[in-house]
Design brief:
By secondary structure, the protein is α/β, with parallel strands linked by helices. The chain has one domain: Ribonuclease Z/Hydroxyacylglutathione hydrolase-like (Metallo-beta-lactamase, Chain A). The strands form two sheets. The chain has a seven-stranded mixed beta sheet, with helices on one face. It has a five-stranded mixed beta sheet with strand order 1-2-3-4-5. Strand 11, helix 9 and strand 12 form a beta-alpha-beta unit. Helix 8 runs parallel beside helix 9. The longest helix is centred in the last third of the chain and has 15 residues. The protein starts with 15 loop residues before the first strand and ends in a 9-residue tail after the last strand. 45% of the residues are buried.
């Protein structure tokens, strides 16, 4: 639903939605979905605590409270604590994990990396990635064995992930063009060149590359990123697509 790191009239912040019920990150939940569509969301996976990934947690809690429904929010304990202490702290917003009783709009559940969890009928594996705050990527596998891996925000050093996953689709962060690579690395993101290195490592570890979609694009530099990613795709013989708002993917 959101494929960028900035919100504008034409771009939204990062959010994926699986089969209408399981959201991954929450930068564009309420700005994209109608109220009836929001009511269908049962669980949310958060990769980390940065604003562009958690912004709509409070907003959807307010909306869901009108339906007397509870959404379960999953992430590492440190991410959930940061949201509780800085957003749902009784000052910015109420603590929606406690009010209104007896059916609070949100329920927090912590995830441990490398432990497979059954969430909404999917097998969910959280894998740590390198970013400026504690962050995980998720491999999500359906009951039919269809799976994808979403890196979340991640800088160089994904090789440790590749040994733990075997997805049919990769969704990865490429935020800035090559000329701003130092800025990308310092913020815990990838440039197209570094992205290419990570894909080459995946191919070496797993033997082949699945299709790849890149998101968390900076719309300011999207034209540059597109050209540089096309070169990476040519060099690796890879199927790489730039993500966009309301893009639909099927496995």
């Amino acid at each position: 639903m959101g494929a960028h790191n900035l919100e504008s009239a034409t771009t939204r912040m990062t959010t994926l939605l699986i089969d209408d019920t399981l959201a991954v990150d929450a930068g564009a939940l309420t700005s994209t979905l109608s109220l009836s569509e929001q009511e269908k969301v049962s669980s949310i996976l958060l990769t980390h605590c940065h604003y562009d990934h958690v912004r709509d947690i409070a907003a959807i809690a307010i909306n869901i409270s009108h339906f007397e429904k509870t959404i379960r929010v999953y992430s590492q304990a440190s991410t959930l604590d940061t949201i509780s202490n800085n957003i749902l702290n009784g000052v910015i917003y109420p603590d929606f994990t406690k009010v209104p009783a007896p059916n609070p709009p949100l329920k927090f559940s912590s995830l441990e990396p490398y432990n497979v969890e059954d969430i909404e009928g999917y097998k969910v594996l959280a894998v740590p990635v390198k970013h400026s705050v504690p962050t995980v990527g998720y491999q999500i596998t359906s009951g039919e064995g269809k799976s994808f891996f979403y890196s979340g925000d991640a800088g160089p050093g994904l090789s440790a992930c590749w040994e733990h996953i075997s997805p049919q689709l990769l969704i990865m962060d490429v935020t800035l063009p090559n000329r701003l690579e130092k800025h990308a690395v310092s913020a815990g993101h990838l440039s197209p060149r570094l992205f290419g290195e990570e894909l080459a490592g995946f191919k070496k570890t797993r033997g082949s590359l699945p299709p790849v979609v890149i998101i968390h694009l900076s719309p300011v530099f999207e034209g540059e990123i597109k050209e540089e990613v096309e070169q990476v795709a040519k060099e690796l013989g890879a199927n790489i697509t730039l993500g966009y708002e309301e893009m639909r993917l099927s496995l």
